[in-house]
Amino acid sequence: MNSFNLLFNIESINNQGLQSYSNSITFMGLANFLTRFKINGGNAQLDIVSVGAYIQDGLITNTSPAFGEMVILNNESFISHISYINNDSILQFSLSNTLLHNILISNNNKGIKLSGNNNIKINDLYSFDNGSYELSFANGADDFNWTGDLFTGGAATTCTYGTGLGDIGLQNATCDLTGSPNVTRVGSFNSANIFNGFSKDFLNTHGASGDTGFSFLSITDWFNFDKRLKGWSPYDTGGLPNVVIQGNCDSGMCGIFDYSLKQNNTINSLFNRNGEFVADALCPESIRGSNFLESPSNLGLSLHHLPHTVEYPLDGIGNDNGICESGEYCYYIPGAGASSGDPFSYTLTCIYDSNGSDIVDVKIFGP
Question: Could you please report the per-residue DSSP string of 309-323?
């Protein structure tokens, strides 16, 4: 796929590539927009090479790509609200002049690998219980800037580093911050009691066995689930973290895993990490206009937009680039990673406060 495309509500389920190198979703070129996508199972990989891409609200789970990685190579881009869970692979970013926002990575073979050397901003990264490491920096990485949350924990080594590094904002194997960035740092986070896990499903043909396991050879319904953040996973009765349920379910017993965050009120809960949505009241403080994010555009300009929100695509109101800007209708994501509900069924709104910013006349819908 070439330049200036909008992909919306894309699903790649149990995509078994017939070649050693095959992709579930691929696009290359200038100014491509991918909003609300889901990759569950299979051995194909996500391969995005683009300038000026906006990639938002995606779920990637239980994949086993042949080359062991999901690759996103982007310049002048914005990537947000991604949940990467139970994969037998690495989430690899090669970035320049790009912002990552609200990325959740848990119970994978490895965590996130970062490379790039020019104006890379990371706001709210949650990477925990990921096998060998939580974060890895490639040779020559430089010019990383951290804000918001940085949660890690559980991996054999929290951070690994290549050679020839510049200013990446972190140091040593425990990812200690350098300088005094505006970051909430939690270094002992784990996946126990975070996700809803194996569950029954009211829409799937085999849903009655979703929480007890169902033979891979008998599965005929790979697509239908009563929640967007559900999919097939290797089945095991153990809790998280759990290497048995990483990767594609292509033999033995499979179960239906609910990747949505469990609602709880414990300290540092990820469920309502960005603030609780209350209809007809002021919107959560995290999305006040004065808390705007700043992302590059494909014209080399800085764009101000709201965090923890996604623009409704194809509604005839905004510009359909996915980021929430002035005069647009947007939906709110209260927790870490991808949205768990169906934003197109939301009817309730909160009262947006621009708080003196240049982002005005925004309408925010929430769960």
Answer: EEEPTTSSSS-SSSS
